């Protein structure tokens, strides 16, 4: 895709970068995205792990920060295995393997409804005094701490596209090459620092990869108010 920066695939026998932590990965992404500084971009982070990263990127670019809320659809009898994802608008991405995992259409509809209720609760918790920031006619940078299948990011990008951003960018530190290729179809620019072939899990590429809690998310989002006070 023209204008995209996929990074270089890391083949067998070559070592891929292991980031110290999410903060280091965010600073490296901010450097790659420096061309958008001063263009009033909107950084949208996937909770929870990517939100502190989004704060670092937003501060570096002089951007606003918000969350983009997406939930995975869980396989029957295996909640850790994703069969797709659903975004805040209710649009769902259902993977080809969903039926093989035992997910009927009725099951998928029930799972969508359950995950949408969690999305609504999370929005009320994270931004209780304001609506989501409108991405229309803005450069929108969607950030996650890494992609595995890309299902969550695809739902996020699809939902945002309907809201008519000026430009839609996906920015992640790490993802396998086939996922980068798949997700790039849903955005205008794909920025991925590392594309390892030996990908098993996102946390494999971080030395320090702790869970991020809701308090950290709320604190990161509060940076918008501090930024506004300083303008």
TrEMBL record:
Q: For the Phosphoribosyltransferase domain, which residue ranges apply? A: 24-200
Pfam families, per database record: Pribosyltran (PF00156)
> What are the alphabetically sorted keywords of the record?
Glycosyltransferase, Transferase
Q: Name one GO molecular function term.
A: glycosyltransferase activity
User: What is the name of this protein?
Assistant: Phosphoribosyltransferase
């Amino acid at each position: 895709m023209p204008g995209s920066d996929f990074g270089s695939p890391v083949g067998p026998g070559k070592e891929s970068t292991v980031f110290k932590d999410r903060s280091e990965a965010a600073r490296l992404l901010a450097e790659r995205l420096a061309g958008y500084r001063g263009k009033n971009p909107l950084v949208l982070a996937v909770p929870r792990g990517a939100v502190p990263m989004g704060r670092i990127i937003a501060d570096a670019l002089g951007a606003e920060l918000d969350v983009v809320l997406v939930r995975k659809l869980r396989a029957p009898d295996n909640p850790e295995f994703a069969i797709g994802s659903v975004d805040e608008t209710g649009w769902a991405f259902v993977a080809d393997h969903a039926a093989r995992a035992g997910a009927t259409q009725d099951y998928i509809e029930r799972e969508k409804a359950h995950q949408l209720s969690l999305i609504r609760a999370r929005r009320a918790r994270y931004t209780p005094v304001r609506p989501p920031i409108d991405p229309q006619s803005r450069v929108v940078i969607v950030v996650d701490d890494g992609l595995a299948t890309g299902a969550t990011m695809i739902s996020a990008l699809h939902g945002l596209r309907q809201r008519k951003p000026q430009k839609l960018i996906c920015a992640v530190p790490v993802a396998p090459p086939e996922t980068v290729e798949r997700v790039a179809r849903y955005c205008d620019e794909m920025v991925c620092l590392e594309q390892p072939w030996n990908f098993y899990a996102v946390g494999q590429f971080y030395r320090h990869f702790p869970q991020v809690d809701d308090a950290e998310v709320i604190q990161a989002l509060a940076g918008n108010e501090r930024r506004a006070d300083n303008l």
